Amino acid sequence: MMRRDTSRARGARRRGAALALAAAALLTFGLSGAPARAGTVGGGSVNAAFADAAHAYGVPQQVLESVCYLEGRLSAHSGQPSIDNGYGCMNLVKNDKTDTLDQAAKLTGLSVSALQHDTAANIRGGAAVLRAAALTLAPKLPATLAGWYGPIAAYSHASSRSVAGMYADAAFQLIQTGFSGTADDGSQVTLAPQAVMPDKSKLDSVPLAPAALPAGCTQDSNVDYPSAVDCVVPTTYDCNTVSGACTYQSSNRPTSFALYDVTIHDIEGTAADAISTFQDINSGVSVHYVVDSDGTVYQTLREKDIAYHAGNFWYNEHAVGIEHAGIDATGYQWYNATEYLASAKLTAYLLNKYNIPLDHAHINSHGTTPSPTVGTSPNHVDPGKYWLWDYYFGLIHSLGVAYPTGNTPAAGLFRVDPSSDQAPDGPNGTETTANNSFFTLYTGPSTKDAVIPGAPGTDPTDETTNVETQMPYYSLASQPDQAGTGMTMYEIWYGENDQLGNSTPSYSADAKKAWLAVPAGSAVPVHSYVVSLKPSTAGATIGVYGRPTTDASDIIGTAPTGSLWAAPKSVFEDGTKNLWFGIDYNHREAWVPSSEVTVIDWY
């Protein structure tokens, strides 16, 4: 979500868009006793369906299994269509850009209903579409498994060749490493590892399905990121040169301001919504890139310029912002494999270009970005609990970006790395509500204890009582959950928003000890400094800042002497030699000056 915070005006604009949900359909394997549908191929196991489809259409069974696993983890997931209106584990789609659902019906003679509702039919339809894709690239089907790289890339329905290639890479990685999973009918599907090197010679011939360009956008080479569509706003939107409405500040980053971060947002709507907003000079907001659910990347501002996107002007100066199609409260219905792949490729490019580390301290979210002052709190919460950080970082790493290395991680340092954050669990590369990257804090070492004080109500996007995965924290103690859930409780210092229940509520935070509930085995070592806080003046209160600037108005909370924190990054205050440490204060990052810090361990 976009937010403006500048020296000229500090304010916020939040936009929303209604999400029209597709009607859910029940996908089955032909349940015992259920009447047969016309045109279905029910009966038999999913393994038999793969074998039959492979034989009928000449598509290797390994290809069908890998695509079904990549798109839907072998599951129909209660019939919910994907964000691009795709059905079944083979993601047969029908939207304004692609229609493989009707294509499959024509090629197989099966009804559309069968392809949507019957998994065996869906696999057969996917095989027919893959065969057709192969025959558009060559007069004969590929003679080897390696030759199916091009048809799989075409099957992705991607709008750019780079994303199509990433899709095929992901499918072949599954073939190379093998996998085992359980289908909806209880069948165990096992693909043994295959020593195969994909033949990528047909990738340049893969037909693309480009989306219609929004007004004000062109497909040219006048962009920073080579795969982006040019939607860069005109210089008349520059706040440095106009006195009226404007949306950004021209600059010459990283010369004018060092680039430390990439900030991940969701739009609270569609890519078209975002582009329309950024092209409105009266909106007061901007961002550098927009990523659509089909993998299209739009550039709306030069990387060198300062966008108004983070709700904290210091972060605006030092970050590249990326908006994603989606709504934070229902991110599981939006964030899909194609969007993640396209965004990962863009972020990998930015990390390499600006030498930014691959970790959550430097690839932050709008939700981990602090407000600069108590008066402007709270900042936004996107992309929310359904953005899968471990999965996302793994995609970036697979593109050749190394994880940070250093000394053996200090004892007590950990990050949450749960199975719910590893990969989309839903159909067609989408997520379910089981995907989750937020974890709750309690007042004692039991999940039966009270949740720590926070914002009133039950807003699922609230960030006052939880943490995101991948952010480092320092554990003072740990023990099994006394409630017997099998989770492990970790005691940490946490900046609690305990003043929100006052008669005059305030977002000023107070650091207290709290217990974080983590799924068993999900706390893993992480590289970070460990710092102990001390006042520079005896008896003084230690202020925690919303940005690394020496300004008392930027104090957003306090912490006691001797409290211990993970500090995954440090910077010099702009124009000075004052060193600041970024600490993971609560759900969000915050800052303390080095004059009030003792480094007790590192990496």
Overview of the molecule:
Residues 248-384 form the N-acetylmuramoyl-L-alanine amidase domain. It catalyses: Hydrolyzes the link between N-acetylmuramoyl residues and L-amino acid residues in certain cell-wall glycopeptides. Pfam families: Amidase_2. There is one protein chain. With 603 residues, the protein is α+β, with helices and mostly antiparallel strands. The chain has helices at residues 46-57, 61-72, 100-108, 112-117, 119-137, 149-155, 161-177, 271-278, 313-318, 337-354, 389-398; strands at 86-87, 92-93, 179-182, 188-191, 229-230, 248-249, 261-266, 289-291, 297-299, 306-307, 319-324, 363-365, 413-416, 438-442, 466-468, 473-474, 477-480, 488-496, 509-518, 523-524, 529-533, 542-545, 555-559, 564-567, 569-572, 579-584, 589-593, 597-602. Strands 14, 15, 17, 18, 19, 22 and 23 form a seven-stranded mixed sheet that branches. Strands 5-9-8-11-7-12 form a six-stranded mixed sheet, sandwiched between helices. α6 (149-155) crosses α7. The model is unreliable at 3-40 (pLDDT under 50).
